[in-house]
């Protein structure tokens, strides 16, 4: 399924709050926070000339978040950043003076953090980020997961010292339960989705993601003409589309949001012109994108700065995992998890459809950026779908392929 953005707000100015949260200065703040993380490094940007030729486009660049902060996912940027910022704000209030990120490990700040508990619901990656952020600052984390989250992903979160709680039902059910319990206990919810009266913290989570675009624009010689980014509740797509619009203005790329066909809450929202909750269907292999209700603030942004919406099937996502693991024509091998390559799956589907190509003005001169949002965050699942262990794919690249392009 495919549609162009027909919303009356399309290409109008962002809400001032969103422009401030997701703009150039905000991304600079995130980058400054990251400079205090011991394992921080800009993630690689890979050029895939072989695949670009297959797709009939000029150039293809993949921003590889599978190596982000040791967590293997772009979500390492959001939850942990929000936790750190919230601790600093609370410490500033209690200590009666400004507290900067450089003071995060000071004893008096650690004492404040030690009395704080952060809670969230997760499909896996966001919870790891919140748990890691809590561990970094010395706070407590309680993470709620639904029945579809694998034991391997639960263990990956628990290793940061988080308390894990299973919830019957879907991701949306776990969001409600995390909110209910946190309210009863006086905990702080760090959610990557918003709801009425709860917008600032999801905005901070989205703010963390803006550094992906900031880095990519520094790594590229020229800005992209097209971007395809996957969506769950819409947070990463909104953050990236907004930052590109704010940083590049009229030179911004054509931005396409890609949903799993089995959990297409952003696509159906775009079709309806307002946030809608979609019915639960058969689970999608793209587990990190299995969300049935969009984040209202993400939709507020996407209604203005996204240009098109589309869906891909599970088979498309698995095909991308395998294509990236077994490259041709000199392309580097890339480990993409089940959800990681969904944006590239959207590009492949669009490139093969003459009507979509025309609607998106996709041609032999196009410079396309996609984001591999996760590596093999569930290595067993990855090997079952690809037939290769993640380490075997990584080892096929003898040197780093990080480079500029366009």
List the helices and strands and how they pair.
Layout: E1 2-4, H1 16-22, H2 24-34, E2 45-47, H3 49-55, E3 59-64, H4 79-95, H5 107-113, E4 117-122, H6 125-137, E5 140-146, H7 151-158, E6 163-167, H8 171-185, E7 188-189, H9 200-219, E8 226-230, H10 235-248, E9 254-260, H11 265-272, H12 296-305, E10 308-312, H13 314-325, H14 342-351, H15 354-360, E11 367-372, H16 379-386, H17 390-395
Parallel strand pairs: 3-11, 4-5, 4-7, 5-6, 8-9, 8-11, 9-10
Antiparallel strand pairs: 1-10, 2-3
Helix pairs in contact: 2-9, 4-5, 4-6, 4-9, 6-7, 9-10, 10-12, 13-14
Short characterization:
The protein is of the alpha/beta class.
Provide the descriptors you would attach to this structure in a database record.
406 residues; alpha/beta; Rossmann fold; four-stranded parallel beta sheet; 14% strand
- CATH class identity of the largest domain: Alpha Beta
Query: Helical region count?
Result: 17
Return the CATH architecture of the largest domain: 3-Layer(aba) Sandwich
Q: What count of domains describes the coordinates?
A: 2
Secondary structure: number of strands? 11
Biggest sheet: strands, sense, closure?
A: 7 strands, mixed
| H-E string | EHHEHEHHEHEHEHEHEHEHHEHHHEHH
Structural class call reads: alpha/beta
Helix residue percentage = 40-55%
Question: What is the fold named in CATH at topology level of the largest domain?
Answer: Rossmann fold
Name the strands of the widest sheet in spatial order.
1-10-9-8-11-3-2
Task: From the alpha carbons, calculate the radius of gyration and give it in angstroms.
Answer: 20 Å
N-to-C terminal Cα separation, in Å? 29 Å
Portion in beta strands: 5-15%
Shape: globular
The parts where pLDDT drops under 50 for at least 5 residues are: none
Give the overall average pLDDT.
95
Organism: Bosea rubneri
InterPro entries: DiNH2opropionate_NH3_lyase, TrpB-like_PALP, TrpB-like_PALP_sf
Keywords: Lyase, Pyridoxal phosphate
GO molecular function: diaminopropionate ammonia-lyase activity
